[in-house]
Amino acid sequence: MHHALFVSEILVEIFTSLNQFPSSETGWIQSSTQKSLASLARTCKTFYELAMDLLWAKIPGLRPLLGCVTRLHPMIYDPKSKYSWSQHVDPLAEHEFPQFLRHSARVRSMTVSANTYFHLLTALPIETCVFPGLVSLSWIVQYTNIGDFHFFLSPTLRRCSVSEFHSDLKYIGTRCTALEDFTIMQDCGTAQLSEAVRSCKELKRLRCPTLDSAAWMHLSTIPSLLEARVLASRIVLWHLDNLDFATFLNLTTLSLRGINVADVVTIIQHFEFPSLKELEMQVHVLPWGEAEQLFCALSQCKASQTLEHINISSRDRIQEHSGNSLMAVRHFFCFKQLRTLRLFAHCPIYLDNDLLFEAMTSWPHIRSLSLVDWYPCPPTVTFRGLFAALRLCPRLQDLQVSVDTRNIDIEPEAESFQHTSLKNLIVGSFEFGDADVEAIARIIFFMLPAVDRVMCASGVPRLWNNVNRHLEFLRNKPSSAPGCCITGTASDLS
Predict the structure, then answer these.
(1) CA angle (104, 105, 111) in 5-degree steps
(2) Which of 41, 91, 116, 267 lies in disulfide reach of 51, CB 3.0 to 4.6 Å?
(3) What is the pLDDT of residues 430-471, one digit of tens each?
(4) Percent of the chain beyond pLDDT 90?
(5) What's the pLDDT tens digit per position in 17-59?
(6) CA–CA gap between residue 183 and residue 204 (Å, rounded)
């Protein structure tokens, strides 16, 4: 054997590269990578430990470990064996414990998708540390019984994702003191979830259903917390009425989905987020009054110098609206670092040439802007106003606004300006029947050369379908190739 293979650093690089090849592991059939690692482990003592560590680092549940038990091996690896082979098999006996635990200390990541084999472990002493090196646990068991988690909650666990909350997780932070990433998919009892969250001291990322006031206050005391995502899949009337003022010192991402608008406003008003870069909110309904209250509270929070991405939407429509236009855009002028702004509201979002120009002046780094409401009104932004604003945002790639298609107030062949970064243009669903299709197509073709076709906020109305046909015609016409100049100032189009 070449002397270079006795250098541990070189061996680690070679074996790790081998382990990075795509795997077809299904839990029943060994992949080619696993077979290669197993062969290397049998080659010599120098290869054994490292190859075995990589071979057992990630396993799909308990089945591979149970296969190390002499009595169970033929049942598990028999090609004719059925999924329910263990149903009438006796639990592990004391002399079989070492066989089962032989490689469990090497396991770093595990996905548990069924409790089929749990009854085989009932004789193991409760204090047994089955997976002393487990770092990541993904638990997608449909029905979890009391005690099922016991053997999997290792002191070294850093990432834990569970399909539903269980009482065994009530004090997970006490047992798994290194836990950094905690995910609970389904709604559960808020009180029990709160206790579990409050037991965690080193969290970096949290994804879970609705939290109570005590849990929110605890999270504000964790300096390592970078990301918090709260998702309520059903309407929960749990008001946050015991919050004190506090600071999430290093939180960069906050996502609030499905919770009451009043609770969102309470969180924004009581907490400071000096490091926040991404904010996402999805509420069930966002009518005019609550939208004004929410946007006003957001504009007054302590994240105006850091927020780069804002996405606020409502999931359900309402039957009636007040008819008031929402001056939503102006509330966001204070966020000078904005890269993304998406607003989906249940009332008209007012926007005209001057307001759009002022907005783009405030957001020199903007890359994506979407302003969508469920009740479109006749647009007041003209093409001249649109391109005056576009001069101020050369990095803009995605735009969704409503444009007055009847007022053709610009001649594209006479202009020296092109916006070459904009690739996706989505217009409002309000449609004028007497618009000049050919003129609109020429404006887009000559001044927005990266836009292949214009999309509509709801479906493809006849106007834009005709515009896109004419765009294709211009694109295939040799003599109509657009120029490539980006010159002039914003005042030229004002």
Answers:
(1) 55
(2) 41
(3) 666 678 899 999 999 999 999 999 988 765 578 888 999 999
(4) 48
(5) 776 655 444 443 457 777 888 888 888 888 888 888 888 999 9
(6) 11
Q: Judge whether 201 and 221 are in contact, CB under 8 Å.
A: no
User: Rounded to an integer, what distance in angstroms lies between the CA atom of residue 431 and that of residue 377?
Assistant: 10
H helical segments located in 407-457: 437-447
Give 375-418 pLDDT, tens digit per residue.
Answer: 667 888 999 999 999 999 999 999 999 898 888 999 888 888 99
Pairing of strands 278-283, 253-257: parallel
Q: Round to whole Å and give the CA distance between 147 and 13.
A: 40
Q: Do the beta carbons of residue 433 and residue 461 sit within 8 Å?
A: no
Alpha helices in 201-247 (DSSP H): 213-219
Q: Are 275 and 299 in contact (CB under 8 A)?
A: no
Residue with tokens 């090849």: 21
Structure tokens at 21: 């090849």
Contact 464, 456 (CB under 8 A): yes
- Lookup: tokens for 330: 């102006």
Q: What does the alpha-carbon distance between residue 49 and residue 22 come to, in Å, rounded to a whole number? A: 22
| Strand residues in 48-158 grouped as ranges (E) | 58-59, 109-112, 136-139
Nearest to 444 by CA among 399, 478, 488: 399
Percent over 70 (pLDDT), the chain: 87
Residue 34 DSSP class = H
Q: In this structure, what token pair is assigned to residue 255?
A: 């996502």
Buried b / exposed e across 419-455, counting CB within 10 Å, b at 16+?
bebbebbbbbbbeeeebebebbbbbbbbbbbebebbe
Find residue 373's DSSP bridge partners: 345
* Strand-pair category, 278-283 with 309-314: parallel
Range list of H helices, 152-287: 172-175, 190-198, 213-219, 261-270
Cα–Cα dist 251/204, whole Å: 9
